[in-house]
Amino acid sequence: MTLKYKLLKIGLFLCILTLGISCDQTTKEIAREQLAYQAPLKYYEGLFTLTYYENTGAFLGMGEDLSPFIKLAFLIFLPFLVLLGVTFHILKDQYSALYFLGFCLLIAGGIGNLIDRWVDGFVVDFMHINLTDAIRTGVFNFADVYITVGICLVFVHLLREK
To answer: What's the domain range around 19?
Structure first.
């Protein structure tokens, strides 16, 4: 890799992270101000709902009852180390644009949620989709969307490689 390519890659990485984390943190702040202590706002006959939720656990609230020490280890320090490793991995070598973007989104989402956990001790979630009683999401945020889309892009890249 040439120096010019490395600098371009780092610049693009930082732009995606900055935009992603900024959007995530801004929407969470709006949710705190506009949705906390309010009734859920339902749109499209309840298909999409905005509601404020403080998630002290992991994905979909799993682990909310864990001790503070275990939460600190598994919900802050371990994810931080994984994100650090993934960052070095994605910046080290040359990958497809799909793979690079997928990991950038995954890292931005991870950092967005880590900021919440570190500062507040919980992650602010505020969106919910309810297609039917059988098909619905938990309450989530933009960082969760970045993580999900990022993982999907990495999987698409890996499938195309085979």
So the answer is: 3-161
